[in-house]
Structure formats: structure tokens, C-alpha cells
Amino acid sequence: MNMIDIILKKRDGGKLSQAEIQYFVRGYTEGSIPDYQASALLMAFFFRGIDREEIFELTNAMRYSGDTVDLSDIRGIKVDKHSTGGVGDKTTLITAPLAAACGVPVAKMSGRGLGFTGGTVDKLESIPGFRTTLEPEEFLRQVNETGIALIGQTAHITPADKKIYALRDVTGTVENLGLIASSIMSKKLAAGSDAIVLDVKCGSGAFMEDQQRAAQLGQIMCEIGVAAGKRTVAVITDMSQPLGKAVGNSLEVAEAIETLRGRGPEDITQLSLKLAGIMIYLGGRVKTEAEGQIMAQQALHSGAGLEKLKNLIIRQGGKGEVIDHPELLPEASMKREIVAGSSGFVQAIDAKAVGLASQHTGAGRLTKEDAVDLSAGILLRKKVGDKVSRGECLAVVYGNNKNKLTSAQKEAEKAFSIGKEKVEKPQLIKNILGL
Ligand code: URA
User: Residue 366: what pLDDT?
Assistant: First the structure.
């Protein structure tokens, strides 16, 4: 077997065998296959497509390319949750404590921000002292003792995905359904939970903008999960405008705390309860998803979810006082207001433009090596459908660097469209697959 024959086969529309896919994944991970050949194959996948069996094989080859996590020492049905990436998406900080407060063990590995989208690990690191790295034994012990641990993914898990993803990022091969599905599911399966809830985003701030394509992605990911013996549910949700009002690491932690207090924006509250309800159902705590919702709601209203987040923060070395005093989170030294140029109704807030603006404040990375400014970001004052008057504040941009703030402000201004017609708020939850 050799790489040139594999590239030619796919280039000409052929179907790769299990052995060929394994040969590529192993060789590229070990370094015996060079970037240029891997890039050629990825582009051939992109144009020729990848069928179901090939997606399954690619997922499996990447899943077993490094360590896999054994969670069998943790009692109960472990449920994982994953978002395909969005702007202002802090649901993990809310759903994971809610599910854990309802008795579902959550042993979760999360990622960092990618491009204009945020990542849970960066958000957690805005909590002073919070450790996102735990030794494996400590990770398992903590989940058994407290019901929850949130950490960053270790370098030893799915190294093939790490390398292939980095290459896709710079070769124009990210937005492919089979490549995205196998990338996400290889990590989820290697992370060892018994059931998985996927939040598949659609709209301008998502990798799959089109709702139908997002549903196809959700469907194939459910099939991969089920084929691996895991109950998997995909919720297709709106990412045409940012989720909630806060975008940026410490700003989002503060909003997650407010939401767990029952005072969060409507959309983030609704989605977090939906996802937590499904986690509680898949975790076997209730008989129906509707009962899961009620249980999640009770954990929110009783404050049990907030208490769980506080315990998690303290257990992982963070300052638990941030729960009652969010002003202890990093705060930016400068801010700029975006104001409405005309009166009317907010027609749209382009999630991608807000994500890019947030990235420009320093809240995200422009190059892989960049350090993240944990206090920077954007707070929306208005959402789609809201009435505005000329000169009224639409959003506040926060940061610590004048030039970055200026470029972020320019980006953020592009995000808002204001018009005379009344508009409906976009439907948040479009579809649920696999329930
Ligand atoms: N997130 C991933 O982990 N992989 C992709 O390919 C896209 C989003």
C-alpha cells in the first residue's frame, strides 16, 4: 500500500477501504506521510465526498490513534455534551453543573477557542486559580466524589485529529460534513462517556451555516455514536446571532453565573435547560426527556446548579467567591460603546461578525501562539427583535489595548442591522435527532 495510490483512488471518486484509511491516519500521525500528501487526500475527500462507511472508519482510526479514557471506575451513566462551536456559547458552564446536580456524573473534556468561536477551557481559565489540567486518577476521583470535573483535552487523546484538524485549518478543508463528524466523534468516543448530547449549530456563527446541512451533520454524528454503542442525541440550534449577551471569557463566566441564579438571558436559559434535560434523561435519572427538563428547572430554581458550579470551581483550585462576587473575575480597563445609527428594530446581529470582533479585542486568538485576554470581549445590550432608538447603545466592547479595541469596534459595528419592520426572534431550537 502507498499514499499515492490512496490519493489517486479518492481523486477519481473511489471508496477507500478500512486498511487504506488506517494506513493514512497512522502514517500521518507518526510523521511518515508528509503534509503535502495528507493535504491532497483531504482535498480529494472534500470534493469527492466521504461515504458512511468511510466516515465510520476515519472516526475509528482517529479515536484509537492515542490514549482512550476509561471511565468505568465512575459510578452511574456518564453523559458528555458537545457543541460544534459558536459565539457566546457558555452552555457547558450551565448544563454540566445542572446535570451533575441532578445526579448525572459529568466527566468532561473541553477545548479552547477556535477561530472566531469560543472554548470552555479559556472561559474556565478566566476564573482565578482554576486548574484545567488534572491527573487521570484525580479526574476520576473528583467525579466520583463530587459528580463533576471539567478539564482540557490532553495531548495524548486523538493525536491524529489534532494533526489533521490543524492541517484542515490551513488547507481550506474544514467545512466538510464527513471530516467534521469524524473529528468531533473521534474525540467524544475516546473521552469514554456512555451517552452524548450534541449541540449542532447553524447560522452565520456556525461551521455549518445551513440548517439542513447542520441536521445532516447531527444525523451522521448520531449514527456514529450509536454504532459505537453510545446513546447519542443531536439538538440543532440557532447560531445566527450570539447566544446570550456576553461574548468573551470572563464576561461569559459572569453570564453563566447569572443564568444559574435564574437571571440569565432567555435564549441561553432555554437552551441550557433543554440540553441539561436531555443529559438527565440519557443519564437514566428520569423516564422522559420532559421530566428531565422539569428536573433541570428545579435544580436551577433551587440554586443546586449554582452550588455545584461553586463546588467545582473550589475543587479545581479556583476562587469560589466569584459566584457571589463576579467583580473578582478579570475586568477590562477600557470600553467603547456601539450605538444605533437609526431608530427601529434590530433585524439581525451577525454572530460571525461579533465573534470576529471579540477575537479582535484579544478574547480569541489570531494566531495559534497568541495568549488570550481573559477580560476582553463584547456585551450586547440588544438582541434580534428589540426596539432601538437612534443613539441608543447596542453593545459595549471591552479590552485592554486601544488599537485592538478600535479594530474590534469596527467589526462589531458591521454586525448590527436595524430596520423599520418588526421582526420575530429566530427560533432557537430547530430540531432534535436521536431521542
Ligand atoms: N470541531 C471539531 O472538533 N472538529 C471539526 O472538524 C469542526 C469543529
Answer: 78
Q: Check 10, 78, 187, 360 and give the catalytic one.
A: 187
- Has 183 been annotated as catalytic? yes
Q: Which atom of ligand 1 is nearest to the CA of 183?
A: 4
Spatial separation of the C-alpha atoms in residues 311 and 298, rounded to whole Å = 18
Q: Would the pLDDT of 114 be above 80? A: no
Characterise 2 by phi-psi region: left (phi > 0), alpha (psi -120 to 50), beta (else): beta
* Cα-to-centroid distance, 322 and ligand 1 (Å): 31
The Cα–Cα gap between 217 and 206 comes to: 12
Q: How far apart are the C-alpha atoms of 213 and 216, rounded to whole Å?
A: 5
Is residue 15 part of the annotated active site? The answer reads: no
Q: What is the pLDDT of residue 259?
A: 98
- The verdict on the CB of residue 398 being under 6 Å from ligand 1 is no
Residue 70 annotated in active site: no
The response to whether residue 180 sits with its C-beta less than 6 Å from ligand 1 reads yes
The Cα 121–Cα 209 span in angstroms is: 24
Name the catalytic one among 108, 168, 245, 308.
168
List pLDDT tens digits, range 402-412: 999 999 999 99
Strand partners, 393: 339
**Which residues are within 8 A (CB) of 193 and not within 5 positions of it... i.e. 6 or more apart?**
71, 78, 79, 80, 107, 108, 230
Query: Could you confirm whether 52 is annotated as catalytic?
Result: no
pLDDT at residue 193 is higher than 80: yes
Catalytic residue among 65, 110, 126, 183: 183
Pocket test for ligand 1, best of 175, 180, 221 (most atoms within 8 A of CB): 180
171-183 per-position pLDDT tens digit: 889 889 999 999 9
How buried is residue 171: exposed, middle or buried, by Cβ count under 10 Å (0-12/13-18/19+)?
A: middle
Does position 369 have pLDDT exceeding 90, yes or no? no
The active-site residue out of 82, 285, 308, 352 is 82
**In the annotation, is 156 catalytic?**
no
Please tell me the predicted confidence (pLDDT) of residue 166: 87
Assess contact for 375 and 334: CB atoms under 8 A: no
Cβ(183) to ligand 1 under 6 A? Answer: yes
The pTM assigned to this predicted structure is 0.95
Query: Distances in Å between the alpha carbon of 236 and those of 62, 174, 197, 353?
Result: 25, 19, 11, 21
Average pLDDT over residues 21-39: 97
Rg (Cα) of the chain, in Å, rounded?
21
Backbone angles phi, psi at 109, to 5 degrees: -110, 135
Counting every residue written for the chain, the total comes to: 435
